[in-house]
Specification:
102 residues; alpha/beta; 5 strands; 35% helix
Length: 102
């Protein structure tokens, strides 16, 4: 997994590529928690367009980060999840929980 963090004003984008699984999910959680703890962060978006695979561990991390967001932060957004990631989101019903840009 490769993660790139981009900041524009109060918006933080986390661009992820590769696989989000048991071996990499905690790293992603750390990046997400650092972004959420920044007082300047008002919105957090994960660009998942280049994620080849995500298992339940990765999904759990996204849910944990959603729950960790402060009240003044907008909901976590998922930007263009790859077809395989979108399938996981749909199978688990998380496509109705997250704001997803397709």
């Amino acid at each position: 997994m490769h993660v790139q963090v981009e900041r524009t004003g109060d918006a933080v984008w986390i661009v992820v590529s590769g696989e989000i699984d048991l071996a990499t999910a905690e790293d992603l959680k750390g990046v997400g928690l650092r972004a959420l703890s920044d007082p300047a962060c008002r919105s957090l978006t994960f660009d998942l367009s280049d994620v080849a695979f995500m298992d339940s561990t990765g999904l759990g991390i996204l849910v944990d980060l959603r729950n960790a967001a402060r009240p003044e932060q907008s909901p976590i957004r998922l930007h263009h999840p790859s077809p395989r990631v979108l399938e996981v989101l749909k199978l688990t019903g998380m496509d109705t929980v997250f704001e997803i840009a397709r």
